[in-house]
Write a structure and sequence with these properties.
The complex is a heterodimer of chains A (about 230) and B (about 400).
Chain A (H helix, E strand, L loop, with lengths): L21 H12 L2 H13 L4 H21 L5 H22 L8 E7 L7 H12 L2 E5 L6 H11 L3 E5 L7 H12 L7 E5 L5 H7 L3 E2 L3 H11 L3
Parallel strand pairs in A: 1-2, 1-3, 3-4, 4-5
Helix pairs in contact in A: 1-2, 1-3, 1-4, 2-4, 3-4, 4-5, 5-9, 6-7
Chain B lengths: L4 H9 L21 H11 L21 H6 L4 E5 L4 H8 L7 E2 L5 E6 L2 E6 L8 H6 L14 H11 L3 E5 L5 H9 L1 H10 L1 H26 L5 E5 L12 H20 L5 E5 L8 H7 L3 E3 L11 H8 L4 E6 L4 H4 L2 H15 L5 E5 L9 H17 L5
Helix pairs in contact in B: 2-15, 6-9, 7-8, 7-9, 8-9, 9-10, 14-15
Chain lengths: ~230, ~400
């Protein structure tokens, strides 16, 4: 199980955090500890008691996810803990999302994501989705084994601020370039920033094939996406 | 004095300087060559040989390299493998084209485009309890058709006494077997959410594996030099799980596995583990692992070959280290020769290093690059040893 030290007791010091609110506290703790049952329960009781969904998101869930990202980057937690935190976040988001539909202020941008044709790896991509959503992006996941044409269609349809393309194998990595070429040729790229990632992908490769950014992991995907949008 | 390839390998494993740095290639799914580059190599060399697959298992996609090509690749090893039960192989051969391949464990692969199979069928995907685990139809490891060919094949190689014998029963790896049964992300989450279940599943898998490993080792008898086992424990950037989780859950299982094997054979133990596993090498040494593979130089600290040599060079034999993420697929033959020389210069002196590609040679590696790699070893790996 996750160590107790992943729960950040210093949260109470933050000015926008209400220390008397045990719901936010338990939501934060549940997501950092990866306890989906408790995170859902806390989210539900928050909504039922009339709390603003944005308060739950910005003062409970997002700080928790940021803490999880920090612990992952510093090597204090690893994939199992990060995966269960992402799962808890996702479970709470399911409850929050319907309330956010008309809250465009909660959204920093639209992010379309997919794993290239011939590749079915999605653990890293799915972690990116949760982290991005936690950071305020509306994420549209095209799934795995996505042909270049489907990326092109999704860009036309959703006009995303950022497109994420993932490939896990050296043998499927060339498909990232094929996909970017198809997008450029179709003339739909416009202002959409393209970030690429996956085990064999490097910054050098990103530069070479005309991607706007490279992200080696889910935490850096958020950072890169925000910096490309000037956020 | 000329020494045989087998002696060359055994010397390197004993940290003695051989006449040339040995090459371990073509003998397992993690040290092999995929069918497409294999066909390209044969065509380039004008070799006529059938397109057979390791484990007689086309969906795995790795070639059973013919003897003429093995000679041209200067491979110093020959492999002995097990087979899935004859009944399972027949069932799969006779299934409708493009249907999922299902192995004797109930796990399997789906074809996502023609000829490309990925492990996507996980029979225990939803299980979180020991009851669900026990209710699974576990494979019959005593089926004699799994190992019927092993004794004769190993005996023949031992009689020829030319090549080191590397034996690799298919995926008797507890963690990766758990990934096959549950899916990788699901099992990793279960390690955090249901640690007792996850640990019980690992032990259950290991006990099933033991039944087959016991029979396999019995069939090999003394006619084996290297047993290959493993479990991928690293990612591109770091470890798959925390060092504490490894020590608490998986290490006792690996230690027990190694003890089981070492009690039944004098063969050296090659442990295959992808990614950046640098922080666990002390544990590997402690458990009695003799040879570490594949030394994924593109992953995190594993790129620091000097540190690897300085810290573990006398305690561990390294096998691999020729990069398959960038250099072999994308490099020129000259770049590949330079990389082979660089790696040999660091890991080679004093013995203790065997060349292999980091994991299997994939579809994106040109035939001339595979030949550039082995020819560089043949040339430079022989001249450099004279100064060690």
């Amino acid at each position: 199980m996750v160590d107790d030290n992943v729960v950040d007791d210093d949260m109470a010091d933050e000015s926008d955090y209400d220390p008397t609110d045990s719901i936010l506290d338990s939501l934060y703790d549940a997501i950092t500890a990866g306890n989906a049952e408790v995170s859902v329960e806390s989210t539900r009781s928050g909504l039922e008691s009339g709390m603003d969904p944005l308060t739950l998101l910005f003062n409970g869930m997002i700080p928790a996810l940021e803490e999880v990202g920090r612990l992952f980057e510093t090597g204090e937690i690893f994939l199992p803990e990060m995966l269960i935190s992402a799962r808890a976040m996702q479970a709470s988001m399911e409850l929050i999302r319907p309330h956010l539909a008309d809250q465009s202020s909660a959204r920093v941008g639209v992010f379309v994501m997919g794993t290239v044709a011939g590749d079915i790896h999605d653990i890293g991509k799915n972690l990116c989705n949760v982290m991005l959503e936690g950071a305020g992006f509306e994420v549209i996941d095209l799934g795995v084994n996505v042909p270049a044409a489907n990326f092109v269609a999704a860009i036309s349809e959703h006009q995303p601020d950022v497109l994420g393309i993932s490939a896990f194998l050296t043998t499927t990595m060339p498909e990232v370039e094929t996909t970017i070429d198809a997008i450029t040729t179709a003339g739909v790229r416009r202002d959409t920033k393209i970030i690429i990632g996956g085990a064999p992908v490097t910054q050098e490769y990103a530069d070479q094939i005309g991607a706007d950014g490279y992200a080696p992991n889910a935490v850096s995907a958020v950072r890169t996406a925000k910096s490309l949008l000037g956020i | 004095m000329t020494i045989t390839p087998r002696e060359r390998v055994l010397m390197a494993i004993d940290h003695e300087v051989p006449d040339r740095v040995p090459i371990l290639l073509g003998v397992s799914n993690a040290t092999g060559i995929k069918m497409k580059p294999y066909q390209a190599i044969k065509e380039m060399l004008g070799i006529e040989a059938p397109d057979n697959y390791l484990y007689d298992w086309p969906e795995l996609g790795t070639a059973a390299v013919d003897e003429e090509t093995m000679l041209r690749l200067h491979s110093d090893v020959r492999g002995v493998l097990d087979l899935e039960p004859a009944q399972v192989m027949d069932r799969n051969r006779n299934r409708p084209p493009h249907d999922d391949y299902i192995d004797s464990w109930g796990s399997g692969a789906s074809e996502i485009k023609p000829g490309q199979w990925f492990p996507m069928v996980h029979p225990l995907a939803g299980a979180t309890t020991i009851e669900e685990m026990e209710a699974h139809a576990w494979p019959d490891m005593d089926d004699p058709t799994r190992v019927a060919h092993v004794a004769e094949q190993a005996q023949r190689l031992a009689d020829e006494n030319q090549y080191a014998i590397v034996a690799t029963p298919w995926l008797l790896f507890p963690l990766e077997r758990a990934f096959a049964m549950q899916g990788m992300d699901t099992f990793l989450m279960n390690m955090a959410l249901y640690p007792e279940f996850a640990e019980a599943l690992l032990w259950k898998l290991q006990n099933v594996c033991k039944q087959l490993m016991g029979r396999f080792l019995e069939a090999l008898g003394p006619n084996v030099d290297i047993i290959k086992i493993g479990d991928d424990l690293g990612t591109q950037e770091s470890l798959l799980m925390s060092p504490d989780m490894y020590r608490n859950v998986l290490k006792p299982i690996h230690a027990d596995w190694i003890e089981f094997i070492k009690a039944r054979t004098d063969a050296k133990l090659l442990f295959h583990t992808d990614g950046d596993v640098f922080p666990l090498i002390d544990e590997f040494v402690e458990m009695g692992i003799d040879i570490l593979n594949p030394i994924q130089t593109s992953a995190g600290q594993m790129s620091d070959l000097e540190a690897l040599r300085d810290r573990y060079g006398t305690k561990m034999v390294f096998c691999g280290a020729i990069d398959t993420q960038r250099i072999l697929p994308n490099g020129t033959p000259a770049e590949i020769r330079a990389e082979v020389r660089r790696v040999i210069d660091i890991l080679g002196p004093g013995g203790g290093y065997m060349v292999s590609s980091v994991h299997t040679v994939m579809d994106d590696v040109p035939a001339e690059n595979v030949l550039a790699m082995v020819d560089a070893v043949e040339e430079y790996g022989s001249t450099s040893t004279k100064s060690w």
